[in-house]
Amino acid sequence: MTPLLRGALLASGPLNLMGAALFAPPLVALRAAFGVPEAPAFYQWTLALWVCAFGVAYAHAGWRGRADASLLALGAFGKLVFVALMTLMAWRGEVPVTTALASTPDLLLAIVFGHAWWRPATTPAGPPRA
Fold first, then answer.
1. pLDDT, mean over the chain
2. What's the rounded Cα separation, in Å, for the pair 73 and 67?
3. pTM: predicted TM-score of the whole model, two decimal places
């Protein structure tokens, strides 16, 4: 694992935990401050808990120094989808542009995860590893 990937995974843990807090139903004022629209509590809890679970998985992988290719692929996809949705919603006027710009760290992390998934490190002995 490269130092860049390890740093990205370790940074993703706290970033995702902040995102989970942002989507948790009780924190209406936090969502309002960031311009995130409201949704039914079931969907907010589902999103918050999945974001939290991935944050724990990222932090654990970074701490261990080993990331499974599946985690990297899903992470890159999920973060890229989040950025795309925020950008589209800003373009449509559904969220402030500043809210979409706040997803920039997710875009950078998606690039790092995607690159690590697409071009896995190789050991001197041979086969690719994640």
1. 92
2. 10
3. 0.85
